[in-house]
Amino acid sequence: YETVSMVLLIFVLVAFYxxxxxxxxxxxxxxxxxxxxxxxNESLRVEPSYGGGLTLSQWGSVVVLAAGVAIEVY
Length: 74
Description:
By secondary structure, the chain is mostly helical. It has helices spanning about 1-15, 25-45, 55-74. The protein starts with a helix and ends with a helix.
């Protein structure tokens, strides 16, 4: 499922490329897409949770998602 998810993300990026409005927007879409993918992927695994009931990788995904949104807003 990891490979399928990443191939789908590549297809989304290739399809989005002609519609980008400014430089760096494709990177933002990649950051947001990968953060969502990683968060869901980590929820399927059994790992110890930290603060807020999320795993360390899920917290990393939240940070990457927030950074992607912040870059797009900026």
